[in-house]
Amino acid sequence: MKSYSSANWKGSGKEGSGTLTSKSKVLDNTSYDFRSRFEDGTFTNPEELVAAAHAGCFSMKLSFVLGAAGFTPASIDTKCTITLDNGAITSSHLEVKASVPGIDAAKFAECAADAKANCPISKLLNTDITMDAVLA
Questions:
Q1: 25 with 56, same domain?
Q2: Of 22, 37, 115, 121, whose CA is between 20 and 30 Å from 9?
Q3: Number of helices and strands (H, E) in the chain?
């Protein structure tokens, strides 16, 4: 499977602006700019999109790992915080709250660690990945 998105940028790095479009059109000429990335702008930015990708990928992977262990999650809520420092993504932190009927804390922690290590976005990121995972 292959997927794609595209970007169009006009102007200088600080004063310019751009748009992002994804294959699915979920992003359809969605604006991004310097202010939204480094100050207080209202558009999206690459780090926000990486955070969404990591949270979504991790949640789906955790569901698969739990399923392989014989559990079906009622819900998995994941917040991902990406840290950009001096022009580099330096960390990705996952905050996970899940409701999984019949699972104990130790088994859940094992499944969450497996998902953190093996979701495709975790494997893609060359950064420190931390996680707090709790059962709801």
A1: no
A2: 121
A3: 4, 6
Residues 62 and 120 in one domain: yes
The C-alpha angle with vertex 133 and arms to 129 and 136, in degrees rounded to 5, equals 155
Same domain, 30 and 87: no
What SS3 state is found at 92? strand
Same domain, 31 and 61: no
* DSSP one-letter code for 35: H
CA distance 126 to 26: 26
> Model-level pTM?
0.94
